[in-house]
Amino acid sequence: MTKPSQKTHGRRKLAVSLPSGRRTFHFEPRAPAKAQCARCGRELHGVPTAKPQAYARSSRAPGRAYGGVLCPNCLSAEIRGLVRASGTAT
Q1: Would residue 85 be called left, alpha or beta, if left means φ above 0 and alpha means ψ between -120 and 50 degrees?
Q2: pLDDT tens digit string along 79-90?
Q3: E-assigned strands of 22-83?
Q4: pLDDT tens digits for 26-64?
Q5: Averaged over 68-85, what is the pLDDT?
Q6: Global pTM exceeds 0.90
Q7: Which residues contact 54 (CB under 8 A, 6 or more apart)?
Q8: Cβ-based neighbours of 28, under 8 Å, separated by 6 or more
Q9: Which partner for 27 in 6, 44, 48, 66 could form a disulfide, CB atoms 3.0-4.6 Å apart?
Q10: Are strands 11-17 and 23-29 parallel, antiparallel or unpaired?
Q11: What is the DSSP letter of 52?
């Protein structure tokens, strides 16, 4: 009998044939979703999908402002909007 903790939508059902010829289901965790831009929803490239502890410091999300949150197009638009709102000329 399957444990109730395994029968959640967070795990996917994988049909497996056993050596005895019987088919059974194994429940394995779903793959994490790709990172998306918070503003437009596009996929963010260069951002790993696993937990940050599994990667070296250099392989994690970009270290710039809004890195791993906004795509480059939305980031430049956001910076332009912040500069315009501040009213300072450079």
Answers
A1: alpha
A2: 999 999 988 665
A3: 23-29
A4: 999 888 888 899 999 999 888 887 776 777 777 777 778
A5: 91
A6: no
A7: 48
A8: 11, 12, 14
A9: 6
A10: antiparallel
A11: G
